[in-house]
Input
Amino acid sequence: MLFEGIPIEYFLVTSTIMFFVGVFGFITRENIITILMSIELILNSVNINFVVFNRFLFPGQLEGHFFSLFVIAVAAAEAAVAIAIIINIYRRFNTIEVDNVDEMKN
Amino acid sequence: MEAILGNQVMFVIFSAMIITFSILTVTSKRILRAATFLLFVLLATAGLYFMLNYQFLAAVQITLYAGGIVVLIIFSILLTSHIDHKFDPVPARKLIMGVITAGSGIVVTLITLLSYDFVPNRQEPIAVNMKTIGNSLLSYGDNGYVLPFEVISVLLLAAMIAAIVIAKRKKV
Output
């Protein structure tokens, strides 16, 4: 077993740091594509949590494994639609900085 | 004993990669570099899945995330940005707010996490081979996931059509 000798907390600390780095990027970035990358970081850290809980706490079942599989599929669908929207925004406003796309606010 | 040390060294390498490159992803000034760092984060995550003995999930992670999503992101960067464009530095107020939010989140979560006593379960682990995965994905009842599987396939179809419709040029 390759994970012998590593307590479950170590994995969870790694994924926690990754999650909040993603939150930080989501708050501070201004380009839509980099915001999308932060969302991918957040989804990925959640996946690690699912898989680690499955392996350490319920090794006789596969719930966490399949849930992270479905999360990956949803993330792929989300990225495809988001990028279609980004390309559309670029055509209309000629920029993808969120601060310049405020037409609907007024 | 040596095997355990090897595991720990491998884990430290992977998690150091994950943490460093995810920080670089959200702070890098050039957008294409940020995408490359994201690719490294996703590959290191696949390494963690291999360590946890979920080979199928690691393969999916590499093909779908590293192969699919990162390529899609780079594609859209090339369509919408100038490669040599550098981001302006983040405004100080926004930076402070972000650091406070993320820092307090990390502190609260880590305190909760490290004070909780996880009890590792000693039940017999299932061998996660292709046969088990295929049977579970297409069966119902206990350990069957046919409903989410079908919902995901409809969702993927809908997302594909939606992406085409949104990105299509409107006829004048």
Chain A touches chain B through 71 residues (CB under 8 Å). Helices of chain A lie at 8-28, 32-57, 63-93.
